[in-house]
Design brief:
Shape: globular
Radius of gyration: 19 Å
CATH superfamily of the largest domain: 2-enoyl-CoA Hydratase, Chain A, domain 1
Helix content: 40-55%
Strand content: 15-25%
Number of domains: 2
Largest sheet: 6 strands, mixed
Order of helices and strands: EEHEEHEEHEEHHEEHHHH
CATH architecture of the largest domain: Alpha-Beta Complex
Number of strands: 10
Number of helices: 9
């Protein structure tokens, strides 16, 4: 049996590939666990500066949850008392990732797959890729991914997507708040490499602590966020990377980041 998630090095980045082309890279527990473990491995490797999430092939980034009907005909079994459902666990892990997460949207991203896109920090997509939540077509609603859709999709657009199940094209103007760059399929990897080059030469410490701060600030009131941000800025200023960054600026030379 082939690995449902595989990884490969892409310069200073780790690329995580959902490897279920025959199922349109649908998300199941094995895929979620594979992505989770790959994120752990990326953070443990001091040479990795960014993570890319993509799917194998050219048709689908991830077509959503791999639903298998239960005996009573319901599309899946879910214990409402268990907060450790694999989708929630994966999304929380993506939130906690200290490295920049880039979605390389090589094809359609639907349902839970669209949730993965929304949970990433940056998105480079094929301009013809379809994005959206089709759950309402089968009597469901995109419950698990709502917190992530709310972060990146304007409210009126989100409501139309959720209530009609209609899809957006990554290259369309309405998708601009969701996608950083939408390009022809032949230019996808060149644009991704261009974006990576702008990330991996920055301070890994600054990015790591910045992402940690952002995750906390998102859930705080303005007063608490300002207090926490001041505390984190003071901590960041004491790091070796911050001292090196200031020294390099004064000396007019490229900084030599140590990640400390």
């Amino acid at each position: 049996m082939i690995d449902e998630v595989r990884t490969l090095r892409r310069g200073a980045a780790l690329e995580i590939v959902i490897n279920r082309e025959e199922r349109r890279n649908a998300l199941n527990e094995r895929v979620a666990n594979g992505i989770f473990e790959a994120l752990d491995a990326a953070e443990a490797d001091r040479e990795i500066r960014a993570v890319i999430l993509t799917g194998v092939g050219e048709k689908a980034f991830c077509a959503g949850g791999d639903l298998q009907p239960a005996a009573d005909g319901s599309p899946f079994t879910l214990d409402v008392a268990d907060p450790r459902h694999y989708v929630a666990r994966l999304l929380r892990r993506m939130d906690a990732c200290r490295l920049p997460l880039i979605a390389r949207v090589n094809g359609h991203a639907l349902g839970g797959g669209f949730g993965l896109v929304c949970a990433c920090d940056l998105v480079v997509a094929r301009e013809d890729a379809l994005l959206g939540t089709t759950e309402v077509r089968v009597g469901l609603f995109p419950m698990m991914i709502l917190p992530y859709i709310l972060r990146v999709v304007p409210h009126r657009v989100m409501m139309e997507m959720c209530l009609t199940g209609e899809l957006l094209r990554a290259g369309d103007e309405v998708a601009q708040p969701i996608v950083n760059y939408a390009v022809p399929a032949a230019e996808l990897d060149a644009k991704l490499d261009w974006l990576l080059a702008r990330l991996v030469d920055k301070s890994p410490t600054g990015i790591r602590l910045g992402k940690q701060t952002l995750a906390k600030v998102r859930e705080m009131s303005t007063d608490h966020a300002l207090e926490y941000a001041q505390f984190m800025l003071a901590n960041l200023a004491r790091t070796q990377d911050a001292k090196e960054g200031f020294a390099a600026f004064v000396q007019k030379r490229p900084p030599l980041w140590t990640g400390e």
